[in-house]
Each structure stands twice: as structure tokens, then as C-alpha cells.
Design goal:
With 176 residues, the chain is mainly α. The chain has nine helices and two strands; from the N terminus they run ααααααββααα. A two-stranded antiparallel ribbon has the order 1-2.
Length: 176
């Protein structure tokens, strides 16, 4: 999830308008909502000082807003927190072990993530049972979803290509 989407998520969660949050971080009243909208839509990316000010105004850590850095433990934790927000990821304990679970009832995206995780578990189980080699397992992971046989993936043409084809064949298309 991009930084603009996180700003939007926390702003809505806090019940703030774009104008109000924009003014909290120091934008002039007349342009506060427009400026904040630019960050939320991704047409502008806030610099570190603005990210810090937005985080303070939203009462979150700057890492909760920024694009996750999974190379640090704090960044990884904020990535997991984002997955909780989007996909209903929950943390629990089972047999003395910490477990992460997906709440498939949270949303369509959560149900899709659960299917993907099940496909991953299937491959991990095959590796554990020595039905596939480590090389086969890594090939599956590093090329995902190319070798995933559990779901049907389709490539959709880009909007640009689709529009070009429609334009090229518009005289042949039926319009009822």
C-alpha cells in the first residue's frame, strides 16, 4: 500500500477531513484540502519532514505511513500491521507458537490472500514431505504466480492496448 493510501486510511480512521489534516500540518487553509489530496492520490510524495508531521497529526509512527521497509524489524512490523488493516491478518497463539491468520470474512481481498497462502502452504508441505526439491520450491516462490497450479491467473491487456484495439475495430463492433 502506497504512502498516500496509508495517509487516507489513517485520516478517515481519525475522522478528519483533508482540509483539517492539511491545516494541522501547516498548509494554508485555502489550499489545505487540495494539497493533502495530492499526497493521498499519489500525485505528490511527501518528504521526510512532512511525513513526520502527518504521522504526528494522525498519532501514528512515521513508519506506519511510509512504504514498508522490510529490511528492518520496525518496518516489517508496520508491514504486518498494514496487512492486518487490509486483509484482516490476525496474530494468535497455538501450541505455544505465535501464528498469523487471515480473516477471510474481512473482505474479498482477504479471501484472495488466503487462497494464495494456501497455495504457498501446499508447496511448503510438498517440500517438507520431500515430494519436491528445495530448488523446485524456490522456483515456485521466486516465480509466483507463474507456476501456481491452484488458481487460474489471467493476464489482462493494459487499458492503453484495450483502448487502441477498440478504436481500431470500432466500425466492426456491434452497438445495440
Amino acid at each position: 500500500m502506497a504512502i498516500g493510501e496509508r495517509i487516507h486510511f489513517f485520516r478517515i480512521m481519525r475522522g478528519m477531513t483533508q482540509k483539517y489534516l492539511g491545516m494541522l500540518v501547516g498548509f494554508p487553509e485555502r489550499s489545505a484540502d487540495v494539497r493533502l489530496a495530492q499526497y493521498e492520490t499519489g500525485s505528490r510524495k511527501p518528504k521526510a519532514d512532512l511525513t513526520a508531521a502527518l504521522a504526528q497529526a494522525l498519532d501514528v509512527a512515521p513508519q506506519a505511513l511510509d512504504i514498508p521497509d522490510i529490511d528492518s524489524y520496525i518496518g516489517l512490523m508496520h508491514t504486518l500491521f498494514t496487512l492486518e488493516d487490509i486483509y484482516g491478518l490476525t496474530v494468535s497463539e497455538s501450541d505455544g507458537e505465535i501464528c498469523l491468520k487471515v480473516n477471510k470474512g474481512k473482505s474479498k481481498d482477504a479471501a484472495e490472500l488466503l487462497k494464495m497462502l494456501c497455495a504457498w502452504k501446499e508447496q511448503a508441505d510438498k517440500l517438507s514431505a520431500e515430494e519436491i526439491s528445495r530448488e523446485d520450491y524456490d522456483q515456485w516462490r521466486y516465480n509466483y504466480p507463474k507456476f501456481d497450479a491452484t488458481q487460474h491467473w489471467a493476464k489482462a491487456p493494459s487499458k492503453e492496448l484495450s483502448d487502441t484495439l477498440v478504436e481500431a475495430f470500432k466500425d466492426k463492433l456491434k452497438t445495440d
